[in-house]
Structure formats: C-alpha cells, structure tokens
Amino acid sequence: MTAELVRGQNHLLDRTRVEIRVAAGGPVVAGVTLGDAQGRLSGVEAVAHPGAPRRTGIEVPRQAAAEHRIAVDLDALPAAVHRVSVLLALPSTTGALPTFGAAAAPAVAVTGLDGTALARYTLTGLDAESAVVAVELYRRQGAWKVRAVGQGYAGGLPAMLHDQGLPQAAELAAEIEQAVGLGQARAVPAPAPVAAGRSERPVTGPVVPPAGDRPSSSAPRTTSDDPAASAHGAGHTAEPTAAAAPGAETDAASPAAAPVDYRHPRRRSTPTPPDPAPSPAATPSAPATAPAAATVPAAATVPAAATVPAAADGPAQPVAGDAAGWSMEERLYNQVWGMFEDLARSVAAYRSAADFAASRMEQELDEALADPRNRLGTAGDVARATARDRHATLVTQARAALDRDLGQLVAESQVVEPALPPAFARWDSPVWHGYQAPQERPMALRLGDLHLPEVLDLRIPMLVRLPLERGLWIDSGPAALVHGGPDPEREVGRRELGSALTDGPPDEAELGRLAMETAVAIAARLLAVHPPGDFAVQVIDPAGTAAPALAPLVESGALPALPVPGAQGVASVLEGLTRRVDLVQMAVRHRAADSLPPDLDPAEQLLIVHDFPHGFDERALTRLRYLADEGPAVGVHLLMVADRARTREYGPVLDPLWRSLLRITPVPDAHLADPWVGHAWTYEPPLAPAGSQVVRQVLGQLAAARRTP
C-alpha cells in the first residue's frame, strides 16, 4: 500500500534500491546530499548535482527538467552516511519560474525499481522559495525510512547548502548553476495539464499535498495552547514563522491599502498571455479563470454555479478552485488554506494596528501631561481629546481595512463552500444528498470549523490530511467549557450545534453525550469518504453507556454489534489491534506483505475509546499507548473520548499519550492556537444539524455499497 505522506511524517522502506521520481510545474534542478547522523555534509563530494551527477550509490539527472528520476542504492552508501536529502531548486536561466509559489506544487514519489510506489508527498505551501529539501531517506536502527520534509529556502541553493553545514555553499551553488546552464538545451518541458476533476495523478508525479503547514516552507499549522492539540493541517506539521503580522500593520492602518489579492502564494498561477483586444461589440468583462497550473477551458475547470460575476469596477470576484493543484480537490484544499491564511493575516494586521493606536495614545497622553502646566486648565483637556481623537481615527481606519478584506473573504466563502466535495463539506451541505460511495480515498477530511471573534459569520473549514498522522482526543471534561475564558461568540456557536443544548452551560452528562456524538460524526465521515471496505470502526465502551450515540453505526452495520462491556471487552479489542500492528510491522520490515494471515482485516481501523480510563488496567494502558505511538503508521488510528482530569491518579505516565493526540472539544471553544501569527482560533465540532438524518442516510448508502458485489 502506498503511503501518502504529510510534512514531517515518515514511512519505513521495505527495500534499499529505489527511485525518487519528481514532477514539477516547470524545469527544476534535482540533487542529493549525503549527510551524517546530524545531517551535516563532509564537503562538496557529499553532494550529487548536475555538475557531478554520480556519487557512490546515487545518480541524479544532468539538467533542469520538469520530471526527474533519481536512482538510489542505499546498501552501496558509505557507512558514515545516515541521511540522504533530495534537493529541488529553480534554475536562474531566462524563462524559468521565479519561485515555487508561481506554479503547481512539486510532487515526489519514492518507488521500487519496478515502478511500485512506496511513498508519495506533494510539497504544497511553498511561496517565495527557490530551493527546497523535498524528502530525506534516513537510517534508523539498521532500517531505512523516508521522511517528508518540505523545507523551503527563499535564499535559493546557497542558503540551502549553507544550512546543511557546507562551508563552500556559494561556490558549489555557482558550479551547479553553470552546469545547469550548459545543459539547459536538453530541459524537459512541463508535464501536460490535468483536466479538472480528474482523480488520477500523473505516474511520475503522484501525490497529494499537505498543509501544509509557511510562510517559508509550508502552510501554517494550528496547534493548541494545550500541548496535546494541533489543528488545520494538521496537515501541515512544520512550525512556521510569524513573519506576516508586522508588515501587515501598515496595510491595516492605511485606507488606501490594496485589497486581498486572490493570486497570493497559495493560489498563484503562472501568468498567462493577455487576450487579444476585444472588439467594440465584445462583452467588456469575463469571469475569472482557473490557475494556469491546470490550464483547461474555464467551463471545464469550475462549474458555473461556483462562480460569481465580476463587478464592472471592483476587484476580481472569487472563483471556487482558484488555486494551484493537480485536481479540483487539491485546488479546493489549497484555496481553503489560502482563506485561512488571508483571515489570519488580516486579523493580525488589525490587531497590530489597534495595539499601536492604543500605545501611541498612551505615549501622547504621558508626554502631554508630563508638563505640570498642562495638568490644569484647558490645555490638558485639549491634549487628551486630541490623543483620543487620533486613536479613534487610527482604529477606524484599521477596522475599515479589515472589513474590506473580510467582505472579500466572505464572498469567497460563499462560492467555495457549495463547491466542496463530501470530505470537505459540512453535514448540512446539499452535496450529501447526492452522496455515492467513493472509489478512492480523498486527500483530506473536514474535522470541524475555525473562526475568529472579529467576524463570527466567516467559518474556515478545518481540514486534516489523510491518513491521520496522529490520534484525536475529544475532551469531555469541564475544561472544554472554561478553556480560554468567557467568550460571547461561544454562545453563538452553541446555538448552531447539531444537537440541542440546554439553557446555560451543559453539565457533565450532557458534555459526555455531546462528546460521543462528535466521535460518531467523525467516524461516520471517515467511513463515508473511504471506499467501501477500506475503513472500519471498533469501539471500547466498558460502562456500556455509549449505546444511544453508537446507534447509527450499529444500524448500518459499520459496527457489527455494540461493544462488549467491562474489562473483558477492553482487553479483547486492544489485543486484536495490537496483534494487527505487530503483524503489519513485521511484514513491512521483512518484505513479506503477502504473508499476512488471511483473517487479518486489511482495512484501516479507527478505535473509539469511550469513558477512558474506566475498565483499563496497567496492561491495557500499555497497549493503548503502544497503539497511539505505532498505530498510525500501519493504519490503526485512535479517537479518545475522555476527561483528562480523571486520569490524574496515573501521574505523568499518560502525559505522552495526551501530547500525541489532537485535542478537540464537543462545544465551541477558543483553544486552538496558531503559531504562525499567534491567534486563538475558535473550534466548532462537525455535528449534523439538529433532527437531521443525514448521518444515518449516508451510512445506509455506504452499507448498500458494501453489499453490492
């Protein structure tokens, strides 16, 4: 089974002779560095590049091209080599791409010599970078693994080589550029564009992108101020730098600042030649087009229902799928990330401008009142009034800039939300009424919504990459209510929850019920977006109290029967899943995937643990921690429904478990922190509307598809 990697994820290789295939939106230079255990290079001889394409165990192409194949024989590498890093860089020749953000995201696949794909990774989230470390093969305890890196460098090859500890970085970069220039006549053209909605990836460039986490290497990843939490991209796992907020302050304070540019790095397209001048009788305006990364007729790229007519004298109107990507699904995924980034930047600029206005007012008041003569009479009153008026003016200008950006983002949301496929759509989306069991797994899953208090009616889908690289924890304790303090927007979100809430804060029993309903909604969505038979759910419910929430899963056959209560049920499920993880790991390690027992279910497994730690002994706790650590790599995923306070008696033993899980809440809560600009995002769970039967209907259709031969 091919591993679809996200940034930071690793995968065990079952062979030592592999090919690394690269596909990009334009000519790129491919190279390899051979590092020690710390990733440091011994010298220029540790770099394979177009000027020196052969090193022991490595061979790279000699020219810039849109597609590459790199041969790697890990057994032939010197014993001192522990890390093989694959580098991609843009040539400086005329007509080359200026940055990676100007074209479709490059894709990397690690394959066997027979072309069998072992791991795939798409480097989304690149912006002004002209060089990037795509993936690395590294030695760990005698075995080789591949890790998705995606570390970009705006400084190009010199900065990338210098970061790997090469003193002669500038000289070697110049040598590589010279070699590329000599071989540029043999450059391979960019691959043919992919038609909108096409599900297949090109054979040489096959992978779906992550989150990506930015701004120099990947899209931002939201992480919780609780160490256990991280979201939205989850997909994206790099720690980005908060470089956008300071520069955005001036824009927020200036009413003449440029509007949101829908061609920002997340959605930038290669510039297209201008159309011939229209005749006087021609229509003066035309709808926005899709990015050049997937050049197809506009009618084939974006459905007419997903566009908004352009205003005659206003900014370009948003279009669903207006982002780079191999398919419509990938373009919508990148566009959602672009909306997240735009909202984060705009709010950061507003908050920064408001803080500046407040500090400036305090400074002016201090200066005015420092002179004792201004403390009496009208002079002091005039100084205070002047300072307050200037503060009000600055804040008003900042708010006007924010409202302008928010207006465009709301308009974009209104065209993007109806165009989202089931995996990205809310449960109340009409797309579920036409649901059909999919034939292949999507690249990501909607795990809820995110929004900020400055604009309550703009919700950004919280998308996480599939397969899940970390488990989930639905906090059913009272901390889900008090985390982040009082917040009026939380009440707005509570009124929109799919389950009816009592007046006032929910009590412990209601929180537990909402948490389990959220778990079932997530499980149902995971089942619905996978092909029939490719995903399965198991449940641990020692007290037997989750039966009402589990009814949709049991009725549809997704859960064969209600879980066995008590310690016996806990031990039975954990033992079976632990055995599955052990067998699959051994099969991968010994290259014996065909030797797995016939009774082993090949489907990915989601384990829902309810009312933890009730019914768990020390052996069960050890197995649970083992599944949380080792399970995701072999298709076993954990979804905990628990109150952490109930596990305090175990002391720090369970701290690694909580830190390994993504914490979400069954009620809206402002607990997901974005390290990119420092926002506390309010998370809303993915519950179906009150009284809706959409979950049961979707599970019923999926059950019917399973029964169809």
What does the model show?
By secondary structure, the chain is of the alpha+beta class. It is 31% helix and 20% strand. It has 14 helices and 23 strands. It has helices at residues 156-163, 169-183, 244-253, 298-301, 328-370, 378-416, 479-482, 488-495, 508-529, 547-556, 566-589, 618-630, 655-659, 694-707, and strands at residues 3-4, 10-12, 17-35, 47-48, 54-55, 58-59, 65-73, 83-89, 107-112, 117-122, 131-140, 143-153, 222-224, 230-231, 444-452, 455-465, 471-475, 535-540, 604-612, 636-642, 661-664, 669-673, 680-684. The strands form 3 sheets. Strands 1, 2, 3, 4, 5, 6, 7, 8, 9, 10, 11 and 12 form a 12-stranded mixed sheet that branches. Strands 14-13-22-23-15-16 form a 6-stranded antiparallel sheet. The protein has a 5-stranded parallel sheet with strand order 18-19-20-17-21, with helices on both faces. Strand 9 and strand 10 form a beta hairpin. Helix 9 (508-529) runs parallel beside helix 10. The longest helix is centred in the middle third of the chain and has 43 residues, at 328-370. The two termini are 23 Å apart. Mean pLDDT is 78; it is low at 185-313 and 482-502.
